[in-house]
Design a protein that fits this description.
seven-stranded mixed β-sheet; 9 strands; 323 residues
């Protein structure tokens, strides 16, 4: 039987397969994800549609942050992005290809995952060409280090003792505006561990923002079925009952004294925050005959965007703001 850590790590591959399916069919523009998927699968239309909305929301916030922090008073790039549980996410390569990067970009995950990611990057000439020139392989091949981009191995359950020292060693600056990104990661941690991460950010990072993407609504029929299906695969959403609703997801940040927090479910994002022309484009890719099932599924996933201070870097950012 696989350990619970190994099963959770396997969700990284599941997400990559879904993203590759959506990219191959034209839902999203990600030419790099195919390098991380050995056995491509065509996902069902409702999964592809959900993957598009998830991708769109994350890219929306990343781009807003970079637009707000791209230059400091001396005209230099500023700001930091920290991806918690980065898996096979390709956002760094997408942003670098477009010349849209903050001063520093950090990715953190279990060392087994970062080792696979580092190896894949170096096997691909397209990905390798996008690495900064000063990139070096470290920690026996499980990490990549450069002044701009760092891929770091670490256990988020030991954030302050294990992850923070690695961030600091690679140039993390607590005084810089910093965006944290967490997609279906904090929810797999016991609340004491995810709360510890947020407590550290609150206490130490002067200007912090975060975008999370997590499951919600565990008590209705669909939510119970979702939990049972994941449990059958050995997966436990350890934080779901502590923060089960849109309101509780935003309130967790407000209770820490953060300046603002807004949560929106994926159904609302798809129906109200995607441009009508984009929804028309998606409808032409595949016919979605499971419309009610898609809405029900999408209602059980949510973005939460929060920030700690009313600084100019975050005041003009909004998950509900068009690209």
């Amino acid at each position: 039987m696989e350990s619970s850590d190994a099963v959770v790590q396997g969700t990284s591959n599941d997400a990559a397969v879904s993203r590759e399916s959506a990219a191959r069919l034209g839902y999203i523009d990600d030419p790099f994800i195919r390098h991380f998927v050995k056995r491509p699968l065509r996902r069902a239309p409702l999964i592809n549609r959900g993957t598009h909305s998830r991708f769109d929301g994350v890219q929306r916030i990343l781009r807003q942050f970079i637009q707000q922090t791209q230059k400091d008073s001396q005209g230099h790039a500023c700001g930091q992005i920290v991806v918690l549980g980065a898996g096979m996410d390709t956002s760094y390569f997408l942003l670098r290809q477009q010349g849209l990067l903050p001063r520093r970009y950090f990715e953190i995950d279990f060392s087994d995952i970062t080792a696979k990611k580092a190896a894949t990057v170096y096997r691909s000439s397209a990905l390798r060409a996008l690495l900064p020139e000063d990139t070096v392989v470290a920690e026996g091949g499980s990490e990549l280090h450069s002044a701009e981009y760092s891929l770091l191995g670490g256990d988020l359950r030991q954030f302050e003792s294990q992850v923070v020292p690695k961030l600091m060693a690679r140039g993390f600056d607590c005084s810089e505006p910093t965006l944290f990104l967490s997609e279906c990661v904090l929810i797999y941690l016991d609340p004491q561990h995810s709360d510890a991460i947020l407590n550290w950010i609150t206490a130490n990072v002067a200007h912090a923002g975060i975008l999370t993407y997590e499951q919600i609504l565990p008590t209705d029929r669909f939510g119970q079925m979702m939990i049972e299906n994941l449990r059958a695969r050995g997966l436990e959403l350890r934080g779901l009952h502590a923060y089960p609703t849109l309101q509780s997801n935003s309130q967790r940040f407000l209770d820490l004294g953060w300046h603002s927090a807004v949560a929106v479910d994926l159904a609302t994002y798809h129906e109200q925050l995607l441009e009508p022309l984009e929804r028309e484009r998606l409808a032409k890719i595949e016919f979605l005959d499971e419309w009610e099932e898609f809405i029900l599924l999408a209602q059980h996933y949510a973005f939460t965007f929060a920030f700690t201070s009313q600084s100019s870097h975050f005041a003009h950012m909004d998950i509900e703001k068009p690209n």
